[in-house]
Structure formats: C-alpha cells, structure tokens
C-alpha cells in the first residue's frame, strides 16, 4: 500500500480526476456549509461542518500518524469539518468537544432571566386593572396551580390574544402562528425529545437561512443557539398562542423523526465513549456536537445534503444526558 505522509505531499499537485477512491467522490459534491461556518463563530470550532477538500490530514492536533486522508482506507467519519485517521483520533477529538461543550454550560439563559412580570406588562399596556391583577394572583395562589395568563383569561379580565401579545412584549419577540405548519418537514430540525421536553416547535423556514421556532411561554435561548450551531441557520424565536400550541405540538410529536439513540452517561468518559462508538459505527460525512441544557447532542449526516434542512432519513442523532455529572 502506498503511504504518503504530510511532508511528501507538500507542494505536489494532484487533480480531483486522479482520485481513485469511489468513497471519496460523494463527499466532493457536498454543499459548502458556509451557513454553518459563519454562525459557529459563537464558540470555538475546528472548522466548517462539511469539508471543503479531500487532501486533509488528521484533524486531531495530537496525531502523530502522518496519514493524509486521500491515501488512507478510511475516508470517514468527518466530525466538525475534520477527518480522523483512527478511532483513537476520533476519541481525542470527541473528548475535546465534550469538554468544550461542558465548559460552556453557564450563562446563555442568564442574560434573559430578568423580565418584567407578565401582570405588570399588561397593567402598563392598560389591558387589565390593578383589581383584576390582584384577583388573578389571589386565585393562582389559592389554587396553587395555573399560569397568571390562564387565570386572567378564565376570569374574563383579558383575551388569550392579549396574553400572547403580552408574552411577546415580555420577551421582546414576535407572535408566531401555526398557519402552514408542515410538521413532517420540520421533524429533522431536532430530536423528538427536544420538541417534547423543551416545548419547542420548529415552524417554518424563511428563505434558506431563517428558521422560526415557536414556544408557549417564552423562548429557550439555549436550545435556539444549539440549533443555530447545529444547522447553520439563524433561529428566530416567538410565542405561539396557548390554544394553538398543544395541538401543534401533538401533531409534531406524531410524525417521523430521524432515528435517535438516547444514552444516560455517568461520567464525561462514558459520554465520550458513547459518541465515539456512534461516530465510528455510522461513519458520517458530517457531524457535530452541541449542548442543549443537560444534554449533549451529536448529529450525524450520513449523506451529503441538498437543502438547508436536514433530510430525516439520512440523519442520525445521539442524545446523551450529562445531568448526573454536572
Ligand atoms: Zn490521527
């Protein structure tokens, strides 16, 4: 077998037509993941999601093998724009990514924590009176359940439309409607678990870069950032009217999502091991790791993608709960 080291390929010119490995051909046609690359400046990344060329050497900075991808029998997996020459190098890179994501666990939500209470927003707008607010708060306290907006609607102090608008004002985000919601097309945006557990509804794509995501009570900036980084799209969060949200979510949970493996890891090491195993088994043409609250989410693209939204059938997810060692 011909072995070519990094130093020996330096300066030589090899045209793509000279490539003989059929496995490499498919990677070449991959859309440039420019979208991903530009948005991922938020956190340190090793490069764009998809690889641009075929002449890369192993992306593990500590690798000493000197393998150049072109001459290695394995052309995949590709993780965060870089190829790993061996399982050991995949493990090193995934461990670094797990560390990076766990280190970045503080803060995104903190910036959004201090909000004017919903009752005050409606009072300021002149939509309710002091007496109505007091009555609703008393009822909420006595019942020990229900949201303030629900009590105000129940007591006929305000309409649901006004509650939705007040939530949008409170969070400085738009009201989003469920018209034209294509649940099946949106299923590949994120694992079903996130739609269920975090109450997020991917709604629609505007142009090929802007994704609208609906929430019932308030945006989830951690999840929105994770989706932006994972898909290379800009995510605009908004409030969906309460009476539309539950049926919309139920409809969404009923469609087909990409296959997902759920892992509960007891340590950072165990999490890394699960990711390496999945990556080496699937050998994806692209993959990325992001954190969503107490989960680490590895997404793997098995085939080059043709559009801005992932294709449900060629995407695999692994979601690993890291709550136990946080
Ligand atoms: Zn290596």
Question: How confident overall, as mean pLDDT?
Answer: 81
Query: How far is the N terminus from the C terminus?
Result: 46 Å
- So how many helices? 13
- Give the beta-strand count: 9
Which strand order does the major sheet show?
6-9-8-7
Question: Please, how many domains?
Answer: 3
Would you kindly provide a written description of the structure presented here, covering whatever features stand out?
The model is unreliable at 1-48 (pLDDT under 50). The radius of gyration is 23 Å and the shape is elongated. It has three domains: 6-105 and 259-325, no CATH class; 116-171; 174-253, Type II secretion system, protein E, N-terminal domain (GMP Synthetase, Chain A, domain 3). The longest helix is centred in the N-terminal third of the chain and has 17 residues, at 87-103. By secondary structure, it is α/β, with parallel strands linked by helices. Helix 4 packs across helix 13 and helix 6 (130-143) packs across helix 7. It has 13 helices and nine strands. The strands form three sheets. The chain has a four-stranded mixed sheet, sandwiched between helices. It has a three-stranded mixed sheet with strand order 3-4-5. The chain has a two-stranded antiparallel ribbon with strand order 1-2. 37% of the residues lie in helices and 15% in strands. Zinc ion binds at residues 58, 60, 63, 65, 84-86, 89.
